[in-house]
Protein: Bacteriophage/plasmid primase P4 C-terminal domain-containing protein
Organism: Drouetiella hepatica Uher 2000/2452
Amino acid sequence: MNTTPNDKIATADVAANADSVNVSSILSSLTQQGYDHLKSEGFSDNHLSSMISDGVRWVSHEEAFKLGFRWRHRNEGLYFPSTQHLKPFPAATKENGDSVKYLRSKAEWVMPTGSYVVETEGAKDAYAGSEILGIPTLAKPGVSFYAKEKWRSPSVKVVLGDSDTWVKPQLITSAILGSLAQKTKIQVVPDCKGFEKSGLVEFAKSGKTKQDYQKLIDSAMTVGEFLTELPSHWKDLDKRQVEKLTQATLRVMGKVNLTHMETDKILDALKEHTGSAKGVLTNEIKRLKLSKSLATVKTDKRFDPNRQVKDETLEVHILKRVFRGSETPYKVINAVFYRYTGLGYWEAVSEASLKKILADECEKCWTLEKSGEEWSGAFEFGTKKNIESCYTFCLSSLTDEILSQDAELICFQNCTLNIVTGEILDHSASHYLTSRIEANYEQNKECPKVFSDFVEKVFGIEYTKVIQTIISMYLDPSCFYGKAVQLIGQSGAGKGTFIRFVQSLFNPSSVQAVGSFSDLSTPDKRHQNLTGKRLICLPDLGGYQQNLRDYYELVDNGRLSGRALFSSETYSKEWMTRYILASVSELKIENSGDGWARRTITLRVKNREGKPDRSLLKKLQSVKADVISWALSMPKDERDEILESPETVAPNIAKDNHQASISGDIIKTFLDSCFKRSEIPTDKAQEQKLRISNTTLFGMYQAYYKAVGSGKPMMLNNFVSHLKVVLPDNFRGRDKSKEQSSQWVAAGFAGIELISSEIFTQQASYDGIQYYCNIDKTVEGSFYTEFNGDDSENEFEPQTEATQELSQELNFVDPVIVDDHVQNIMTAYKVDDLELWGAVEKMVSLDNALRQAVWDGIKNYLKLHEKNAENRKCIKNMITKMGKQIRAKQNQAN
């Protein structure tokens, strides 16, 4: 009698089922539909009872949903808890129409306990291997679980695939990954007669026994053997299927560490069954390896594709991404980065801030690195060297020399004002303004009461016009340069409040406070302290001040050099900065005759009365918009006149300037404390007798300086030169004695005498006569006894930095008469500069000694400076001014 595989299984069940099995309890767990399905797959009631004890049961759609099965259809079915699989009824399908044998839960999967020999696909096949065929078999929940360490089962010896594993790329990959993960061999269920596809269920239903199953396990293959046999199963497939399988095989080969012999055998098999050349196949393996490694990098969230450095240098990548690709425009002007704020002005960005941006970006940039036949992403740009390199490169690339701030425009919070025409403009990056007034602009406002009360309390009501003028000067970049404001007064009297209020009119990035004038005296310090600034404050000055030449030039807005830190290149520019100073008392100024008084508007604040108002600054800042409108409403001509002569509206300023010029100049203080004026005798012999020589005055000056200990003492030549500026009408040059014609009388000063012979005492020493000052005998105000409103010092004020240097050169020249030498100099420049020659011709009638002094100074100056147009103009102006002074002295002598 012929029997079917199912009859054999049924017969075995009857023999094995000595005890009756409660079918009703099985049905309560599986339902009739589930029971019938599993019975048709060859499972006996005993098998089913064992499976139910493992938790296999029928679940409704609602329960399936709670268990983590998310599917677009309402499916119920058999639930296998060991693999978190659901066998859906009716059968589920994908959107493309392919059937889905099992649904996988979204819940966390837990490795079943126990020892297993075989790992196979699907829960039913695993139960067929364990229950029907009698060898412990584990079902894998999915290919992705191989990447999880907890999936590793050390007892598994073989990964077993269904019969269609030979011809499905995804199953080939699954088998290989399972073998690699479990470190096992591979086997495939053979085709079973009567079944389209064979798994362990079909293997058992076809009549195979435990012994057959064991033989199948024992004949398992290594990965290399499996890949070698693989192409032999493709004979009946079409060309397209073979190509896909070949690609899958080559891709898997790229992941497996095969020996050269194994690789060669696999390639021979592929060549035999596909017709492809081995060289082509080898190259394809390499390409697939690279493609896979690239794909791995691209899917890694650490590697931002926009930050990959490829086909360009890191510097170019940073330039494009951070600067040119940014919504915020960047420019570099005079080695400083500026970014447009969108608020009408460009903001200077500090080097530290820029390098922080570059450091963050370099840290995130990456590139591909090839190691063998694989690519990997590498973060290798986050170094100090790369940051510095990117900074330098971007600095050069973004430099724009043609950009300049329009001096006629002022940026406010609500608009941009053309200060010349009064036109109100919209904010625009094209204006290239680098600062903003921190207030809205409204036209023609009156001075707010809280501010006028402050001015009256701190300065006096008569200073209102002066304060309006000063604020207008600070706000209006088109106002002429050449004036700075100095506040003098006791602590707590209002100096600081006024300075902080003026500062609040500007954007904080446009204001800089420095400690001393030396902070402005070098190109590096100017670049650091003045870049992007409108207002420079020196809020706490005191004592002796020096290094003022550069400060004077900055006040005049002359061109001075700047240099970025650690840069070898300098640049020259007009810095367009205004200055405000404060001190408790008058400052001691080095070479104050160089122009301190002319450039400084001195405002003395009144002593504080009553308790300080801690909220005063906030009150003032609340009305700053009105103060700005009030200040800018002043007619420009009126403002400029007051700046030139502030004493016309506030007479006390002239007195304060006069007192400051005396207290600030050590030479004037020396004269005012030790000397008094006297008549200059008309008789030459008498004048020579009363004249005090330069060396005597210098000895007294040194003694006085030691007694008061103020500042740095001058050298003899500087002292005499400065004294000639202070007392231009009192200087007398070296001349022959009227009483003894064979002798010369030393150069000195007439018309001055000591207020007391006890002020200085003399003592002989090996260095000659030494003077000592009895400071208690000095009397302040003895020389400048009264102020008549005219504080003219007859200062020669060069208008450029170059003429200042020339003037200093002349101060050191001894007036030696060498006419031949003068003629040589004149001849040397006759051909080169006709204009200069013309100026020289006008000097023929001048005093020979002074003319020689001028020309020696010119010679020294031209040795140190290029003979450009500016220098020639300076020289001509110097000669002309000296000529006027000499002629005036000649006329006076005659």
About this structure: The longest helix spans residues 869-893. The longest strand covers residues 535-541. Residues 801-893 form one domain.
